[in-house]
Amino acid sequence: MSLVVDFAHSAGTSGLTIYYTVEKSADGKYWDTSTDTFRTKGDITPGDEEISLPEDGDEAGRYLDTLVTSVAAQWTDGNYSCIIRNDSGDVLLAIHKKYLKTQEEVFFRLNEI
Predict the structure, then answer these.
(1) What is the extent of the structural domain holding 34?
(2) Less crowded by CB within 10 Å, the N or C end of the chain?
(3) What is the pLDDT of residues 9-30, one digit of tens each?
(4) What CATH number is associated with residue 94?
């Protein structure tokens, strides 16, 4: 299973340091990068719920990442949220997406509002 995050900054701003988190809406648990599981936020070491969103080398202001996990059982049918923040913690964008186990990939294709 993989989750693809494709974020285009509205002003085409390059050189940003940004991160994203993934939350399972059914139980409010966050993806923990140290264990590759969804866990209660209070049980996650601070920073382990943040995933770096690097800038695409071919297009200024576009940030791409693919979160690949072999723990498909962690991804149950349901709604997930992806929240993108800058290095100051400001929310740049939040989006919700439905995931079905029959999907090979989940895409969060995002444009800043």
Answers:
(1) 2-111
(2) C
(3) 877 889 999 999 999 888 999 9
(4) 2.60.40
